[in-house]
Amino acid sequence: xxxxxxxxxxxxxxxxxxxxxxxxxxxxxxxxxxxxxxxxxxxxxxxxxxxxxxxxxxxxxxxxxxxxxxxxxxxxxxxxxxxxxxxxxxxxxxxxxxxxxxxxxxxxxxxxxxxxxxxxxxxxxxxxxxxxxxxxxxxxxxxxxxxxxxxxxxxxxxxxxxxxxxxxxxxxxxxxxxxxxxxxxxxxxxxxxxxxxxxxxxxxxxxxxxxxxxxxxxxxxxxxxxxxxxxxxxxxxxxxxxxxxxxxxxxxxxxxxxxxxxxxxxxxxxxxxxxxxxxxxxxxxxxxxxxxxxxxxxxxxxxxxxxxxxxxxxxxxxxxxxxxxxxxxxxxxxxxxxxxxxxxxxxxxxxxxxxxxxxxxxxxxxxxxxxxxxxxxxxxxxxxxxxxxxxxxxxxxxxxxxxxxxxxxxxxxxxxxxxxxxxxxxxxxxxxxxxxxxxxxxxxxxxxxxxxxxxxxxxxxxx
Amino acid sequence: xxxxxxxxxxxxxxxxxxxxxxxxxxxxxxxxxxxxxxxxxxxxxxxxxxxxxxxxxxxxxxxxxxxxxxxxxxxxxxxxxxxxxxxxxxxxxxxxxxxxxxxxxxxxxxxxxxxxxxxxxxxxxxxxxxxxxxxxxxxxxxxxxxxxxxxxxxxxxxxxxxxxxxxxxxxxxxxxxxxxxxxxxxxxxxxxxxxxxxxxxxxxxxxxxxxxxxxxxxxxxxxxxxxxxxxxxxxxxxxxxxxxxxxxxxxxxxxxxxxxxxxxxxxxxxxxxxxxxxxxxxxxxxxxxxx
Lengths: 463, 291
Known about the structure:
The complex is a heterodimer.
Chain A: H1 2-14, H2 17-25, E1 27-29, H3 36-57, E2 64-66, E3 78-80, H4 81-91, H5 96-123, H6 132-153, H7 159-173, H8 179-187, H9 196-226, E4 230-231, E5 240-245, H10 246-271, H11 277-280, H12 296-307, E6 313-315, E7 318-320, H13 322-349, E8 357-358, H14 365-384, H15 387-394, H16 398-438, E9 440-447, E10 453-462
Parallel strand pairs in A: 4-8
Antiparallel strand pairs in A: 1-5, 2-3, 6-7, 9-10
Chain B: H1 2-22, H2 55-60, H3 65-79, H4 81-84, E1 101-102, H5 103-110, H6 132-145, E2 149-150, H7 162-172, H8 174-177, E3 184-187, E4 190-192, H9 200-209, H10 224-239, H11 254-277, E5 284-287
Parallel strand pairs in B: 1-2
Antiparallel strand pairs in B: 3-4
Helix pairs in contact in B: 3-6, 5-6, 5-9, 7-10, 9-10
């Protein structure tokens, strides 16, 4: 085959064949759930490609210019140069709007895939030793992804993202003692500043992607080094992987998935408007867009700010703003908990062994329940972030919707969590009896009144 | 071979999607016809209003003024007294109409808000329950008794003031009615209705009267030319869907985008992964010691 010949040719020159040959023959487990992480990788690649094109046209200056483009309602308006450049990109650059929308959609899909992939890793216990370190990288990647998204959609200088930046600035300010310094340090002065977009731009196109590439390389390097986990099954042990080889099986699948990711994102970018900044208008500190929501991966933070109590505490002569609890403490606790979980679970269960065989979610009902509870919590927060839209669609008062969400935030996670625990125990019991039955080689059966057979378990001989 | 077939179908699928995407609205945005101010297509022909009296009333007006007053009295007694009181000073079920001469009655009647369909709810925009002659008669009846009558504004659409209208809309209306005038929650149980159904005159009337929790804008705040500009922009939004990048999903913004990303985007990819995920050789064993 061509690939093998190529590897041979390379080997004659740089002597790399033993590694490459091994790599081509590396075995990967066959299960769809193990491919979710790949969507993240390809989502990121699409982001880099489309992002490069979009960046060709972007102007990171906040200085006012007169818009003279083709979009009639804004023609002749004084707008930030950044805003004008994104309008140009959208309406005049070749394929500009399609690529811009693909860039934004792939960000939503990228982070969505991260969440799916993390859920899979969590529920199957794949984060346990020796992969606890890699779980940490994963959590960092989620954080970086959210950071990339937020800095990205804040760039065009439109009214909606300006409102979001204003909130972010206030949340940073709410951190006791250092907050004002942090906010001033990043934004370069009191909000809104003229350096804002420049700094966001360089963060968005250089700092965050560089960090993502670094952490992602470590993440994938560790996956390679530590091998994939696999589900239990015939012939599968803690020291092997049963499945198919990288070449040709996984290479083909993976390239196919890459193509599919581009295709799906292109469809979304082509047919669904995303972030129509021409509707929002340029940012003015005294205006507000309505409805005003962040992208979905920040929605839970918005919801947290909406539902959080108006709790202003005075401490050592300083007022701690209510924003601090819902904007800093809550997300800090959530991500802190995620980072710490592998180590916490080891403490709780006392299981310090390395695990390469992963479990089905129902095999650990309590972990299943915890995961469901946390996901429910974040989901309630996320939905609460658009309570005003739901109030309009459902014809209820937005204030009532907010109180309903406050109650749901407290009640729903434990309820859903416990339901999941119960389902987990039930499934586990069923599968154990099933497995138990299969292991019986010889048994004595008794005919029962219904015409069926009962197994006399005491007399059965297990295999 | 099966894996070839799968790989081939995934590629074809992706390729077709990319090709389809290049024919999408977003791909054609750069060559799309750019917005022009549409001629106003709503049933009401604002330009023909003279001194706030619609054309139908003028042709209708062959009868004596007294006849109209009588018609107004009858209509008011039958349809309005129960809630607004015989003396117009209001009851438990409806507010006083002492400030509702002119614009008030005309706006509430031509938008079909009155007589209120479901007591205890916010009046909605519907087709009017009375014809223009009857509305004019009622307006004269209330106007003759009210302590305040705001004249019905004479609104003229002016394409040249589209940009001014857009800018005024952003500063004065967008926060309640939404970026696309699609309507939004205004708090306290009120909905700032979508403005797509309002005629130019009704837009002017709403601005001057301030229905519900909407502020009342005086001449000093918004001049008659400002109202012309606003009406031009609002009618432009109503008649020119801003679908340069594909469907706008009612301008619901990021929450709607989130749903599309989750169900269409992640949904499709999940399906592809699920479909191709387990179909492979599946018989190779790679021992950890091998590398």
